[in-house]
Amino acid sequence: MIKKIALLGASGSIGENTQHVIEKHPDKFELFAIAGCKRYKKLAAIAEKFHVKHVAIGDQKAYAEAQRSNLFSGDTKLYCGENGLSELATLAEVKMVIAAIVGTKSLKPVMAAIEARKDIGLASKEILVMAGKFVMAAAHKNNVSILPIDSEHNAIFQCLQSGNSKDLSKIILTASGGAFRNFTLEQMAKIKPEDAIQHPNWDMGPKITVDSSTMANKGLELIEAHWLFNAHSNQIEIVVHPQSIVHSMVEWQDGSVIAQLSPPSMTFAIQHVLTFPEKFTGVDKPIDFTKMFNLEFLPPDLNKFPCLRLAREALISGGTASTIFNAANEIAVDAFLKHQIPFTGIAKLIEKTMSALPHKKAESLDEVIDFDDTIRKKATELI
Ligand code: MG
Q1: Which of 20, 44, 100, 198 could form a disulfide with 9 if both were Cys (CB 3.0 to 4.6 A apart)?
Q2: Using 50, 70 and 90 to split pLDDT, how confident is the model at 202?
Q3: 162 shares a domain with 32
């Protein structure tokens, strides 16, 4: 049977790679519904190419423009805003929802999809950092699998198939180290937004590329790994691996380490999630071991990349500390991209926000959502 997919974040880089995988296997997958925030013209082009009849647009203004345009065919249903995204993600025909909208904008649609018992392919790691406790509890209650698309977590997921989780010694989360791995602190203070939106190995959107260059991305992934694999902070080690070929590893109690390797293209992780537990021919070529290449591993520099330390502190502190880390980081990246704060100001703003607000235990998802709003206001004030 053809698996019908709802793709949230169709116009972004994960969205594009998901389309490559679907195109490669038209007998197995159908792109049934797509959603994005603002780029409705791109959504219209995707809808036309894949004959998609259900399109959600998160941004109200973009939705109104899309309705006025004649870019969508008469039999295409347009959905608007967060509620529209939730409606689209819970359509009866949809088997799996791919959550790939940057940040936490798809939290409610993903929760709705979990309640509707759709399987989730998760790229939007921020959702777990913001509200992992409630997302994982809902998935458990509804017997829904959350399959990780983030390349590291997809690798860990694959490596964990080689043993029983009770025998896990640790998770070794690899990090490329970003574009400024070899910069001095003085050089880092002068980094401009246009330098920070280029990544040496991966082709990604601006927010995650900046996150990668501050290593806040690895901090988010540390917290993401905690929720996905129920691992304690001291069971997750971060290792810099500049080539981005080993996507992560697990070490078992007997000392054996299992790694997952593939070239730095997201199609590997996306296809794994779409076809799990089966395997089919991939979109991109695998590693060619007949050509010589080196794999290096080195410890991260916590002085140069304070976001890593802050994320670890947030994870250990627990409760809403990770919610603060995530929301303050989003505000800081946005301020950096608008030239309001320097590159090194990103970590400073996160740290200030983390000390200005209480780290508390939230009793409900609504409480987390309200608090998230407070954090964003506070962080904006602190700029
Ligand atoms: Mg990643």
Answers
A1: 100
A2: confident
A3: no
d(CA 321, ligand 1 centre) in Å: 21
210-241 CB burial, b ≥16 within 10 A, e <16: bbbbbbbbbbbbbbbbbbbbebebebbebbbb
Determine the distance separating the centroid of ligand 1 and the alpha carbon of 266, expressed in angstroms: 9
Separation of 348 CA from ligand 1 center, angstroms? Answer: 23
- Say how many Å lie between the CA of residue 1 and the centre of ligand 1: 31
C-alpha 34 – ligand 1 centre gap (Å) = 23
Which pTM value belongs to this model? Answer: 0.96
Condensed to tens digits (0 to 9), the pLDDT of residues 113-170 reads 999 999 999 999 999 999 999 999 999 999 999 999 999 999 999 999 999 999 999 9
Is residue 221 domain-resident? yes
Q: Please tell me whether residues 116 and 157 are part of one structural domain.
A: no
CA of 69 to the centre of ligand 1 (A): 36
